[in-house]
Amino acid sequence: MTRDARSAYAAESVESAHNAPMNEPASYVPPAVWSPPPSNGGRFANINRPTAGATHERPLPVGKHPLQLYSLGTPNGVKVTVMLEELLAAGHAGAEYDAWLVNIQEGEQFGSGFVGINPNSKIPALMDHSGAAPVRVFESGAILMYLAEKFGAFLPTEPAARAECLSWLFWQMGSAPFLGGGFGHFYAYAPHKIQYAIDRYAMETKRQMDVLNRRLAESPFVAGAAYTIADMAIWPWYGQLAKGLLYEAGEFLQVHEYTHVRRWADELAQRPAVRRGRMVNRRFGDPASQLHERHDASDFELRTQDKLAPPAEKS
Ligand SMILES: N[C@@H](CCC(=O)N[C@@H](CS)C(=O)NCC(=O)O)C(=O)O
Fold first, then answer.
1. CA 191/CA 39 separation, integer angstroms
2. Domain termination site, one of 151, 178, 196
3. Whose CA is nearest to atom 1 of ligand 1?
């Protein structure tokens, strides 16, 4: 399509949106210049804003280990804690880490210390203090690659196998926003249900699940015969979805159809490192499954929420 044809097509779409009788709300016509609404409702409305940068001074804590992770037990956070636990389980003692909780609902991702590590203000973010100068890494896919290269693990070095692994890793990074920010947002979090949006993103989410299901029908792991960072990136999103554990959407999306994804999801869930990794920075579910901060391997036994004393009553 030429540039002119493209602009004409876009102008026609905008024109028809302005005239559509079914806009939501019915009175809505996009103004010439967008401005943020006072509040648009929805689960994350209180932290959404149209600008970047720090909103307040807040230095980050630093623990005793070379690797300092600032995160939360969401699917993007779990990718990294699973990787760190896998590295430790494989004998890489240098992967010992402190995992600090970042409460995104309270806006802690906009504190000066966090923004210094991740200018994009999203968990997970990692600092590596093991070298002469500290290294910051943000974006979960970049963190997985950084750790895989640092320790020489879970990322094949042979060019074809490496290309396959990175292709699936980047597939996840590009695809998950349609699942989370698209389907999950409009199906579970938006303040009212918009059929157009739910249909659009359910369609794409099911297509993505079929991509993965076909791949896992022919291969034990996503990138081939070996378990890699591609599995670690994909499992917290699509593995959980296939088991009906994301957005309470199992029946709606008929996830039982994705039998190969479910087989793989179950196998990964049995791995001891995956079981530990999914507990770190977790703030929901069974208190025994929640380890808000992780500073030592013994924390899994000693410091889960069921083991910690309840806060003293205020008088
Ligand atoms: N592409 C990023 C996405 C990270 C992301 O979306 N993090 C969410 C939690 S899962 C977050 O921190 N949200 C806070 C906000 O949007 O203010 C990655 O994979 O690291």
1. 11
2. 151
3. 139
- How many other C-beta atoms lie within 10 A of the C-beta of residue 127? 20
- Ligand 1 atom closest to 142 (CA): 20
* Predicted confidence (pLDDT) per residue in 138-179, tens digit: 999 999 999 999 999 999 999 999 999 999 999 999 999 999
Cα(143) to ligand 1 centroid in Å equals 13
Residue 143 belongs to some domain of the structure: yes
CATH code at position 234? 1.20.1050.10
Portion of the chain with pLDDT greater than 90, in percent: 84
The answer to whether the CB of 98 falls within 8 A of the CB of 283 is: no
Tens digits of per-residue pLDDT, 36-86?
987 656 666 778 899 999 999 999 999 999 999 999 999 999 999 999 999
**CA of 123 relative to ligand 1 center, distance in Å:** 5
Domain count for the chain:
2
The answer to whether the CB of 221 falls within 8 A of the CB of 268 is no
